[in-house]
Amino acid sequence: MSSVLIKDLSLSFGDVRVLQNLDLQIGKGEFLVLLGSSGCGKSTLLNCIAGLLDITDGQIFISGRNVTWEQPKDRGIGMVFQSYALYPQMTVEGNLAFGLKNARVPKAEIARRIARAAEILHIEPLLKRKPAQLSGGQRQRVAIGRALVRDVDVFLFDEPLSNLDAKLRAELRVEIKRLHQQLENTTMIYVTHDQIEAMTLADRIAIMRDGAVQQLADPATIYNRPVNKYVAGFIGSPIINFVDGQLVMNSDPFLKAGDLKVPLARYEFSGNGAREGNVVFGMRPEHIFMDKAAEDLPFRAEAVVEVIEPMGADTLVWSRLAGHEFRFRVDGQTAIRKGDRIAVGFDPARASIFDAETEMRL
Fold it and tell me: Is the per-residue pLDDT at 135 higher than 60?
């Protein structure tokens, strides 16, 4: 049974169409991430599910119930916002209890729910403190706890970690994942523009662009078989290498891009079919290898090192291969210098090829 079902949802502000005929089915207990750049409509969609925005067309169902026109408080959802939005004059315990008191939940039940949320989020020692006495990470835990005490089946997260520094983001990311594992039957819908959050947290990712879903799939499928060039370029850091070329289809198909010739006998074409013509060839930096690691790969060539970016555990190498720019990763301890001529290779089966006109995967 679907926990959240969205049917043909559209939203317009005047003549501006923000969301376009969206259909989403989110299973009970699933962690779905809405991922995209600023302005793609992901937070708008979340606010529609929460009831904070009235939709122009379509329907929203939560736990089998049509909630399209119900008030947010009646939808059975808990929401965590980007800002902590805590009451500064109240203690942590007071913040957690405030909504429950307004809903006239019995005192004993309020105490039980607060104790349970505090235990799950490891904030028991903070209950008597006020928000000003907490760190950013602690405040966000309290904000999550305020949603958790509502004891609902669907949680909505609107970029909850974006105000934290990198270390705290990593710590809270793990905490949210643990929270989902503990609450097995609780559905979570999470909005972010951070692909690392999406890849590490999600059961499935919906990548959005211009108010529409470009691809909805598990993280491995999104990463390895992006449905179009936009998705391929959005997922992955450093960004995927793109080369414009021509696809030649014969008994031994290959890609030709100037002096670059890549054999494609091992490449698995998608259901969109393949025909000769202009294409965009994509190869991720982490799938390109050098020296001995490249010896047994189907494609090998010489590259010239142009720029080196040490990143600690890894080094990002910018190189020139047959006139084309290629980025790839090597171990951080690898001895490599600008101007070096190195042997590189990759397996074209791990590539992604897109039609130059439609930008859809071939």
Answer: yes
117, 142 Cβ separation under 8 angstroms:
no
Q: How far apart are CA 239 and CA 285, in angstroms?
A: 8
Vertex 319 angle, CA 317 and 321, to 5°: 145
Q: Which residues are within 8 A (CB) of 136 and not within 5 positions of it... i.e. 6 or more apart? A: 163, 164, 165, 168
What are the structure tokens assigned to 145, written together?
């706890």
Query: What type of residue is 359?
Result: E
- Which whole-number Å values give the CA distances from 228 to 142, 172, 270, in the listed order? 39, 31, 11
Q: What is the DSSP track for 239-299?
A: PPEEEEEEEE-SSS-EEEETTEEEE-TT----TT---SEEEEEEE-GGGEEEGGGGTTSSE
Nearest to 348 by CA among 168, 97, 279: 279
Full set of structural domains in the chain with CATH: 2-234 (3.40.50.300), 241-355 (2.40.50.140)
Distance CA 207, CA 97 (A): 36
Task: Provide φ and ψ at 98, rounded to 5°.
Answer: -60, -50
Q: Scanning the structure block, which residue is given the tokens 């819908």?
A: 189
Cis peptide before 219 (omega within 30 of 0): no
Q: Are 212 and 34 spatial neighbours (Cβ–Cβ below 8 Å)?
A: no
**pLDDT of residue 289 exceeding 90:** yes
Query: Strand 77-80 and strand 299-310: pairing?
Result: unpaired
Whole-prediction pTM: 0.91
Vertex 160 angle, CA 156 and 162, to 5°: 145
Return contacts of 231-235, CB within 8 angstroms, 24+ apart.
231/207, 232/282, 232/352, 232/354, 234/35, 234/36, 234/37, 234/195, 234/207, 235/195, 235/199, 235/207
State the pLDDT confidence band at 231, using cuts at 50, 70 and 90: very high
